[in-house]
Structure formats: structure tokens, C-alpha cells
Amino acid sequence: MTIHIAARKLLRRGQLSAPSPADRARVRELLFPARCALLVVDVQNDLVHPDGRVGPGRARTVYAAALKQINSLIGAARTAGVPVIYIRTEHGPGRDSGPYRAVRARRRRSPEGTCLAGTWGAEFAAELDGPRDGEQVVTKHGYDGFAASGLAQSLASAGRDTVVVGGVATTLCVAATVVGAFEHGLYAIVPREATAASDAGQAKAALRRMETHYGDVVLADVVLDAWCAAEVAGSNHAVLPQVAPR
Questions:
Q1: What does the pLDDT look like over 160-179, one tens digit per residue?
Q2: CA-to-CA distance for 138 and 144, rounded, in angstroms?
Q3: Is 244 part of a structural domain of the chain?
Q4: pLDDT over 60 at 217, yes or no
Q5: Residue 179 lies in a domain
Q6: 245 within a domain of the structure (yes/no)
Q7: Helices 220-229 and 60-80: crossing angle, nearest 10°?
Q8: Burial of 2 (0-12, 13-18, 19+ CB in 10 A)
Q9: Is the Cβ–Cβ distance between 194 and 221 less than 8 Å?
């Protein structure tokens, strides 16, 4: 696989480690459509819309660029027969754990949190190429998309051992979900341009931690090229069996 011009620029800036030929071959194998699923994490109004409770703030253009990449990945995944799984967070009375409430209190944040169940803020962003009939939607009440969701069981039932993870925020729910994938014995691949966080420095550090300890951080084009090149019969998108939360 040829390193793209964009990758060479990132290498010169010290923002991307140079993959060895063995690493590139290994990632190509992991991205084979029959073994993958795409996880879209928390692309919800409160988190990505300027009028949301958190919103992207000054990083609005960064979030918009990430959303565009996420939609490109969704389209490529469907064409290649890769299941698309949408993960969303919901908070509110009876949903939030004691530790979550304690952290918000320590940070002097509103006790009710963001993405309140049943509100506009918890809905998927209108700009997102959202779930189609049969595509799995996982609802979580914390950071990790694998925590008490049945997601790992669903992936195992479908014979999928690799997840491509995009969404927001790079520093929190994306990172936690990548760790969750690792702890459940799954390979994780993160297309760096398909994630976003308001603090660029913290986002860069989070990607570095993921790359060092939990999976592979690659350019989005690496994933898109692999899926677009795959020879898959037909154009029907794949879906996973629905598994009820534990």
C-alpha cells in the first residue's frame, strides 16, 4: 500500500508513525469486509451541533470535517457489505451511575448531563447518514460502547473480529470504546480524520495512546481504499443480529 501525500505530511509533522510493510499488510487483512464492522460513536446533537449542550465550540470546522469522513465510511461500508453500528449515549435520572454523577459534581457541571433521553440533544445529528432498517443501534449510559450493551456478543455471533471506530469525542467515548474493543479481544482500527475533539492537542495525545496500546490509527483513505477495492457480490448492506443489552 502506497503512503498517501497526506500521510507523508503528517509524518513530517510527527503526527503519524510510519507503518512498516508488515503493519500495512496486517491492516489490509483486518479490513477485509467479511471480518469488519464500522462503529459510529455518539454523533448526536448535544455533542456536534453548535446549539447542543456541549457543541464543538471553536472546533466546529474540525467536527464538520470528521462528520464528512464518517459519512464516507458509512457509504463505503454499506457497499462493501460491512455492518454499520450506531452507538449513542443517553443520560438522565435512573440511567446515570453514581461515579458519573460524582465526576460531574466535582467538575461543577449540571447534574443532568448531556444527551438526555427523549430530547433533541440525544438524537443523531441531521447531517449524519443515520441508521437504515435493520442496522443496529446501541444505547449506552457511559463512555464505552461495549459496556453492558451486548455488542461484543453480537459481533462474535456474526464472526466479526475487527471494528473500525469513528465518531466523537476522540478523547473520551471513542477512546473508551477502542479500549472496550481491545478488552473484548477485538482488533480496533481508528481512521484519524473520522474522529474529532475540541482540543486538538488532547485529541492528538488520545490517538497516540490508542495507537501505542490498543489498536491501529490510520488515515481514513486506508479504510476507504480497502473497502472500495473489495470484490463483494451485490450491493446489499450487511446487518448484525440484534442482541438485547445485559
A1: 999 999 999 999 999 999 99
A2: 11
A3: no
A4: yes
A5: yes
A6: no
A7: 20
A8: exposed
A9: no
pLDDT above 60 for 189: yes
**Cell numbers found for residue 220:** 481514513
Q: pLDDT tens across 60-78, in order?
A: 999 999 999 999 999 999 9
Using an 8 Å Cβ cutoff, are 82 and 227 in contact?
yes
Cα-atom radius of gyration of the chain, to the nearest Å?
A: 17
| CA nearest to 198, candidates 63, 45, 40 | 63
Quick check: 91 and 115 in contact, CB under 8 A? yes
Residue with cell 451511575: 97
CB atoms within 10 A of CB 234: 7
Q: What is the pLDDT of residue 178?
A: 98
In this structure, what CATH number is given to the domain that contains residue 24? 3.40.50.850
* Residues 168 and 47: beta-carbon distance below 8 Å: yes
What is the grid cell recorded at 106?
466535582
Q: How far is CA 65 from CA 5, 45, 60, 129, 245, in A?
A: 18, 16, 9, 14, 32
Rounded to two decimals, what is the model's pTM? 0.87
Cα 206 from Cα 30, distance rounded (Å):
22
Q: Is 169 helix (H, G, I), strand (E, B) or coil?
A: coil
Instruction: Specify the pLDDT at position 238.
Output: 66
Identify the residue whose cell numbers are 481514513: 220
Cα distance between residue 9 and residue 194, in whole Å: 18
Domain of residue 170: give its range. 5-12+19-229
Distance between CA atoms of residues 4 and 210, nearest Å: 22
The answer to whether 60 and 184 have CB atoms below 8 angstroms apart is: no
When divided into structural domains, the chain yields a total of: 1
DSSP annotation of 59: G
